[in-house]
Amino acid sequence: MATVTYDHTSRFYPGSDVPAVDRLNLDIGDGEFLVLVGPSGCGKSTSLRMLAGLEDVDEGAVRIGDRDVTSMPPGRRDIAMVFQSYALYPHMTVAQNMAFALEMAKVPKSERGARVREAAQILDLMPYLDRKPKALSGGQRQRVAMGRAIVRQPKVFLMDEPLSNLDAKLRVATRSQIAALQNRLGITTVYVTHDQVEAMTMGDRVAVLKDGVLLQCDTPLALYRRPANAFVAGFIGSPAMNIREFEVAKGHARVGDVDVPLPREELAGLAREGSDSVLLGFRPESVDLVGSEEGFPVVVRLVEELGADAYLYGSIVGADPTDSPDIVARVDPDRTPRIGETVHLRVRPGQEHTFSPK
Ligand code: ATP
């Protein structure tokens, strides 16, 4: 069983008393595709590198299956890593690049050849086996890097932003290839990216990190529907969720000139904290344009037409425009409002999110 466990795992870089990764607890299932995502510097690569054995663990433990690998050298962990840079050997052919680690591991020559051919078939690399990396496209090089990992038949794949050197279109195509390949091979995979769309489309579960702390780990849909806090809410989804702090009075949040009722549990929580404001969030796709009686008024500043969708950007009437960025709302591309017009928006019942400002 190739489960992966981070057990209160921390890393302090020399000279720093702030942990780059702070008591990470995470159980990754056998065969699971787990994505670590978060903004630059949140500790994704450090977490991955501790699992790979490329970075010291200062507190806690890392386990693969029932083996404690916390202090085990990388070569004995039965993992294969795909880096952002691919790190292919330029003087070797594709076949030699793929076979190299097997040669080091003293795998017999006939078996090496068979494993390389099998991986090359899976990855559509058969026509390129005799080429050097410089004679390959970016996407082909990326596949060779994958091939090198596959031939080793590891217990766990580790991937650190493996698509970041590809152009946008190829990245989209390759991410579905990698997800399909992982599914087919069934090898436990830990994948690092800063791109939330990549995370959401590839992961069985997605772990969101910020400042070295794991904020939430769940399925893509659960993260989208039930974000645990305002950071996850704003990070997952594009365009981002609208989140604003509003005054609370008499059980309602005051949104511009309109009072939005708040759920009772939320009010109880705010009262306990002594807070008289609330962070109210709603996704651009969770609002409807309605008549003036039914919604809160927004002055349209910009309309973005993307073909299948259109988004309006505008400010809530009555809100202070200097400290209140635009509200974003998805609208019908066939009935977009005019710039300067005042429209009324209503958040679909049950699709609002509330967070404590604390
Ligand atoms: P990115 O997406 O930019 O690669 P990341 O989420 O992978 O970021 P890490 O590379 O894990 O983040 O870095 C986490 C924190 O540790 C950051 O504050 C970073 O500055 C710090 N850090 C990373 N490597 C070192 C190092 N070798 N020495 C000291 N500090 C480091």
Automatic annotation (TrEMBL):
User: Which segments constitute the ABC transporter domain?
Assistant: 4-236
Q: Which species expresses this protein natively?
A: Parafrankia soli
Q: Does the keyword Repeat apply?
A: no
A Gene Ontology cellular-component term: ATP-binding cassette (ABC) transporter complex, substrate-binding subunit-containing
> What taxonomic ancestry is recorded?
Bacteria, Bacillati, Actinomycetota, Actinomycetes, Frankiales
One Pfam family this sequence matches: ABC_tran
Does the record's keyword annotation contain Nucleotide-binding? Answer: yes
A single GO BP: carbohydrate transport
Q: Which residues cross the membrane?
A: none
The molecular function terms in GO held by this entry are: ABC-type transporter activity; ATP binding; ATP hydrolysis activity
Name the record gives this protein: Sugar ABC transporter ATP-binding protein
Task: Provide this UniProt record's keywords sorted from A to Z.
Answer: ATP-binding, Nucleotide-binding, Transport
Recorded hits in Gene3D superfamilies, A to Z, give: 2.40.50.100, Nucleic acid-binding proteins (2.40.50.140), P-loop containing nucleotide triphosphate hydrolases (3.40.50.300)
